[in-house]
Amino acid sequence: MCKQRVLSGVQPTGNLHLGNYLGAINNWVKIQQNYDNFFCVVDLHAITVPHNPQILAQDTYTIAALYLACGIDLEHATIFVQSHVTAHSQLAWLLNCITPLSWLERMIQFKEKALKQGENVSVGLLDYPVLMAADILLYNADCVPVGEDQKQHLELTRNIATRLNDQFATPESPVVKIPEPLIRTEGARIMSLTDGTRKMSKSDLSDMSRINLLDPPELIIKKIKRCKTDSIRGLEFDNLERPECNNLLKLYGLLSGKTKEEVIFECQGMGWGKFKPLLSETTVEALKPIQMKYKDIMGNKDYLESVLKKGKEKAEAVANQTLERIKLVLGYLVPF
Ligand code: TYM
Question: Whose CA is nearest to atom 14 of ligand 1?
């Protein structure tokens, strides 16, 4: 039987943090055997906010290498760079023309980021979710594993796909597939180390708010030592007045592979002085194999480039077919 298709991606802006890892990539690794997977480095998305051209290519290598270092297996997955497959930008344009502006203006991430940028906010930032819809629909993805912050964008993708099918195809032979979000119950929203009510994010100005996958052990220890806590005795999950405590216990559970019950049993009587070193050690140990593998891969650029070259070819074969199919139903003249 044919496996279902998965597509997902991460932006090459800086390296990845524990939110990206636990909310997305670790989930991809866990489910990869059951699917035919396409994982892209979404470099076109990376320029929707002001970017530095000096580091975009390097960041693109970094993210691709991190996919492999985190355990993405080429037996089950194709890794490629979004801008290498031109169908993404082409389909984004076609979808732009059937997407109502009001749908985009409602996107929470756009509103939040636009607020920060004021007058300088780009059309690209508004259009970002349409490009994301193109990424997904080109591969006829059945499932899209992401963190919770992408839920609204996936809902938009489903709405765009439905609109395209309704306007230009028939229910018996739809032109695109309606994808399902795959959002895990644990880890879908990892919070900042400096404010447990805000998500861990690459765009937070303070690097102390996140643990990056490539942070050296001393820095991880320092960040956890300084992270925000409270002065209540004992540790507990799910107390709304203790968002930091909930987040740190969750991190410990996810990184150690322990269940919530095991974490409660082990940690409920601890103070921060005992828990923080435990969390630091667990985090350092969990990231060590990823960092070692990352170093190996980055030391062998030829290999990494060959992975991305093969990935481009495989991705292009699927994406171009879908693009042609969509252009046909939209009435385009086939090139001679
Ligand atoms: P990006 O690069 O912001 O984030 C990559 C993935 O990490 C997840 N994530 C988190 N999960 C849990 N807790 C957090 N604090 C946290 N922060 C980030 C995100 O949900 C995401 O899964 N638009 C997307 C990239 C994209 C994409 C796509 C994803 C472009 N095209 C097609 C899926 C399918 C983004 O900016 O992710």
Answer: 19
